[in-house]
Amino acid sequence: MSSDEQKRVDEVSGKVGERLSPLKEKVPPELRKEVEPVVEETAEPPPPEDEYPKEYEEFVEAPEEPPRPRRKKRPWGSIIIVVAIVVVLLAWTLLSPKVMPEVGDTYTDSQSYASWGNYTGHRDIWAGNMTWGVSVSGYAVAAGNREIVVDVLVTKIQEGPGNWFFRGTDIALRNVSVFDEDGTFLGTMSNHTDLGFGVLAKVPVSFDTNGTYDLYVTVKFLVYEVMRIGFFPLEMVNVQKVFLDVPVVVT
């Protein structure tokens, strides 16, 4: 309030007091009350309009911004892993060997493939049961010659896979050797060929001296289990001492 306004208020209060003092004396003491002048205060002028926003800013809080939605992470890592697994499975399946066919005793009883002897061996394991056949043949040694070639054919006579997921087996020849009956080593396979119905190994044999020899053959091959998807090495089979039915005469 300015000084001029204050002076005006004081003058009005003095005049009101002077006029009320005679009335106070006429009022009985028990009813007399202190009458105080009522002065209406002059209202202060409203603040400028530009000050309101500042005051409201102190009390009104700005609305919180809603959280931004997170971007969904694309599962590239999972996709790459799945694709890699599929590629590996396809390659594993495409590289699987063919299942060797069952031929029964056709070649173990053959006069051409088993003219020198034969062998039949059975395996019954968790992957199934298999019967393998070994057929041995050759040619008579010519006079004055101490070298011959022994043919050894390995076939699958019969097979029963352990379950539906196993399609069957195939083999890979690791060693075919020929020995004299006393255990003297005479020769090992020089090559082998997959004939479709079996694997044929050729074993060149050399004799030091003339004479009659009783020979036997040893065969080692790795069995592969071929599955609906992929394959794996199953076991190593050793066929020991397949004796020839006829002696070899060297003159």
Structure characteristics:
3 helices; five-stranded antiparallel sheet; 11 strands; single chain; 251 residues; alpha+beta; four-stranded antiparallel sheet
Please give a quick description of this structure.
With 251 residues, this protein is α+β, with helices and mostly antiparallel strands. The chain is 20% helix and 39% strand.
Radius of gyration: 57 Å
* Whole-number mean pLDDT: 84
N-to-C series of helices and strands: HHHEEEEEEEEEEE
What order do the strands of the largest sheet run in, or round the barrel if closed?
1-2-3-7-6
Q: How large is the count of helical segments? A: 3
The number of distinct β-strands equals 11
Helix content: 10-25%
Shape: rod-shaped
| Terminus-to-terminus distance | 150 Å
Q: The biggest beta sheet, please? A: 5 strands, antiparallel
Q: In percent, how much strand structure appears in the residues?
A: 35-45%
Structural class: alpha+beta
Q: Which ranges are low-confidence, i.e. pLDDT below 50, for 5 or more consecutive residues? A: none
